[in-house]
Specification:
alpha+beta, four-stranded antiparallel sheet, 66% helix, elongated
Length: 349
């Protein structure tokens, strides 16, 4: 017993036991066989600390993985929360607020939560071009307007395409607006509408519009020639006029190629419209002729009624003249009637 007590009276044992006990308490490690020697105390203390550090490192790594998995969602949610706060501060209407929130939900569902420019800006120009060609060139080649253009010109345009998303019911452009960009439909459906809201045509994947005003082709110059409205959520590529002109400066021969393709498309689009206008003119002329014919018949009927009235008046006047003539004859030949009446009786006798 005295030997056991004397063992803990040593200074080294006191420090070793104190460090061991405090480490065991801090790490909440229990059910460990009690060491007996000084080196055992120091060894177990070292093992406890190493184990705790490894455990903390593993738990921290798992926490970082979970945090990174939600980083995009948290960033996206922060943007949406800031926008909601702004709309509340500006007292934005409920209908517009719901449209904006649904637009954000669509972006999240389609993984459009980041800007391509922000992602690709760290790449060198060469790799940016290759990435843009890989992503957008196939879509650009589907556009009829660019099918006869050389590949170098298409690559220059690919680098300028901007992605835009439109909500259901949004007008991409309106008739009469100044055209500063053209659009290529990547995904979705849009309608070309008349001023009264009638649907004139439907645009789907690979369709394009806005090139007429962009190239100043046609009688309207750089003005939009129609209204274009998104039916559902639509993903479009936008090509601005200044970007197109910049590319045409490097490829001037492509200017006439694009204009000729735009004129052909304008002629094809104008043919049904011209036929509709001709049919409308024919209906209008037919209606005008019908109205004129009805007016002519009405006037003829009026003339006939006047003629009948005149004839009736003349017949009435004639009857009066006959009556007057009979009265005058009776006065001039008063016995003519009696002699006429008595002749039969004489013949009887």
């Amino acid at each position: 017993m005295d030997g056991h007590v004397n063992k803990y009276n040593a200074t080294s044992m006191k420090y070793a036991f104190s460090l061991y006990w405090s480490t065991q308490t801090m790490t909440t490690i229990g059910e460990v066989q009690q060491p007996t020697e000084v080196w055992e105390y120091f060894y177990l203390t070292f093992v406890f600390l190493v184990g705790v550090m490894i455990f903390a490192s593993v738990v921290g790594s798992i926490g970082n993985v979970i945090t990174n998995l939600r980083a995009n969602r948290n960033l996206f949610q922060d943007r949406l929360d800031n926008l909601k706060e702004y709309m509340g501060y500006r007292k934005v209407g409920k209908d517009l607020s719901n449209r904006i929130i649904r637009w954000f939900d669509y972006l999240w569902a389609q993984n459009h939560t980041f800007e391509e420019e922000d992602v690709l800006k760290y790449l060198p120009d060469k790799l940016q071009a290759e990435m843009a060609i890989h992503v957008h060139l196939a879509t650009l080649k589907q556009v009829e307007l660019f099918q006869n253009c050389e590949s170098g010109f298409l690559i220059a345009l690919v680098l300028k395409l901007k992605h835009q998303v439109y909500s259901p019911g949004d007008y991409v452009c309106r008739k009469g607006d100044i055209g500063r960009e053209m659009f290529i439909v990547k995904q979705g459906m849009l309608q070309v509408t008349a001023d009264d809201g009638r649907a004139l045509a439907t645009l789907s994947d690979g369709s394009y519009f806005g090139e007429i005003s962009l190239l100043n082709v046609g009688k309207n110059g750089n003005r939009r020639t129609a209204n274009v409205r998104s039916v559902g959520y639509s993903d479009l590529f936008c090509l601005r006029k200044e970007d197109l002109l910049h590319a045409l400066n490097d490829y001037p021969e492509m200017r006439e190629v694009l204009k000729e393709a735009a004129r052909q498309k304008l002629a094809r689009d104008a043919k049904p419209q011209q036929e509709e206008e001709n049919a409308e003119n024919e209906r209008r002329i037919s209606f005008t002729n019908s109205v004129e014919l009805a007016d002519t018949l009405g006037k003829r009927l009026e003339d006939l009624e006047k003629l009948v009235l005149t004839l009736a008046k003349e017949i009435k006047t004639t009857n009066r003249s006959v009556v007057t003539l009979q009265k005058q004859l009776t006065k001039v030949y008063p016995h003519s009637r009696d002699s006429g009446d008595s002749s039969p009786s004489d013949s009887d006798s």
